[in-house]
Amino acid sequence: MVGFFLIALLLGAAGTALAKPWWMRGIDSNETDFLPPDVAFRVAARIDGDVLKVRWVIADGYYLYRQKIEVKAESPDLVVATPVLPPGVVKTDPYLGTQQVYMQQVEAAVPYSRLDAGAHPVQIKVTYQGCAEAGLCYPPITKVVFPTAGSSPVAVSVPPYPWEGIAIIGGACAFLLAGWVLRKGRKLDIPS
Amino acid sequence: MKTPGLRFLGIALVVILGIWAGLKFHAGQRAPDAGVPVPAGVAGAPDPKEAAELAAAAPRPVIPAKLPDFSLKDLSGKPVSVESWSGRSLVINFWATWCAPCRREIPLLKTLAANWEGRDLAIVGIAVDYPDKVRAFAQQFKIDYPVLTGEQDALDLAAKFGMTSPALPFTVFTDRRGEVVALFVGELHRPQADFILSEVQSLNDERIGLPQARRAIAEGLEAMANKHSG
């Protein structure tokens, strides 16, 4: 397992070293190490009782401006309140002043009501704007989002670590079990 | 008979457990953004791996060899054609007032404009922004090089440089014949700007040809990046 991770680390390091730096651009193709905005910032929403939860997952090295996040009703019968956002990380730029930003992820709670429940699917229009730490900004992005029903999070999380532990323990158990099975019935040939 | 049966059972158990653990571990490794919840089943939230594959598979927009003809309004609202700078090398900087790295570039661009004044090179800013905001910003920061503004028309122009997924800042360098020598995406810094401009000057003086200039810029920027990262 240690060997596996060592190889993975070495491969990762090699990959990083071979990757072109972000500001080295070819002339014949629009090669860039920057992510497309829809990959840098992914948004989804779910209905949680009388609140819509809108979540952004933000790629490493990218951030969203708190002040630029907007959530508006798109369905004709939907009324949404101002999104409730957690405090962000304070970022001070000499040329843009002090701003609150989000990194990794953020979830907005948006209280909502419906004038004619069930007549239309719930649709919201979200606007957000962010940048890459490496020195690139994307214009404000506006998307229509269909929040999924149900109070359980729509977000799917499959951390590899528990399975890694199970694999180690399972492997060790199987090894011991196999040893026990194979050894059973045999007598040790100990010279007297 | 009992011992070989048990032995077979033991081996089979090891194999099954091994396959199961391997599959589970593999599934865990494949999970995008491990540990970070990933929005699913929502319009506009593509699977990141799928999106990355699509982005990689999509044909890359090619930067035009020649500067496309365009006309945008200046800060007084008067249309200005790129032809105005015909016969001069251009540094065309796409920016916006809401973009922090764009703002950080302004002092450098002002310095370049001052250093190259009276020579065959012009700095032109293209603000993808609302004209009133750009006017106020240009006054506040005392921008003394020409600035054009546009909204959708500026985005359309950006797309002609291959920037179909708009992102700012980016800077286009041309020689005096209007050939695109380099396109720099992201915040421009002094060493890179000076290096690209020295190659543009060599090209203008006909000391090197366009392919050589492009290659030298690509290699030079890579060397600078390696030095920077090393």
What are the SSEs and their pairings?
The complex is a heterodimer of chains A (192) and B (230).
Chain A: H1 2-18, H2 37-40, E1 41-48, E2 51-58, E3 62-65, E4 70-73, E5 78-80, E6 89-93, E7 97-102, E8 105-114, E9 124-128, E10 130-132, E11 136-137, E12 141-145, H3 161-183
Antiparallel strand pairs in A: 1-2, 2-8, 3-7, 3-10, 4-9, 5-8, 6-7, 9-12, 10-11
Chain B: H1 2-30, H2 48-57, E1 71-74, E2 79-81, E3 89-95, H3 100-115, E4 121-128, H4 131-140, E5 147-150, H5 152-160, E6 170-174, E7 180-185, H6 190-204, H7 210-229
Helix pairs in contact in B: 6-7
Overview of the molecule:
The complex is a heterodimer of chains A (192) and B (230). Chain A has 192 residues and is an alpha+beta fold. Chain A has one domain: Immunoglobulin-like. Chain A is 23% helix and 33% strand. In chain A, the strands form three sheets. In chain A, strands 6-7-3-10-11 form a five-stranded antiparallel sheet, with no helix packed on it. Chain A has a four-stranded antiparallel sheet with strand order 1-2-8-5. Chain A starts with a helix and ends in a 9-residue tail after the last helix. By secondary structure, chain B is an alpha/beta fold. Chain B has a domain of 117 residues: Glutaredoxin (3-Layer(aba) Sandwich), CATH 3.40.30. Helix content of chain B is 47%, strand content 16%. Chain B has seven helices and seven strands, in the order H-H-E-E-E-H-E-H-E-H-E-E-H-H. In chain B, helix 6 runs antiparallel to helix 7. Chain B is elongated, with a radius of gyration of 26 Å. About 10% of the residues of chain B have low confidence. Chains A and B meet through helix 2, strand 1, strand 11, strand 12 and helix 3 of A and helix 1, helix 2, helix 3, strand 7 and helix 7 of B.
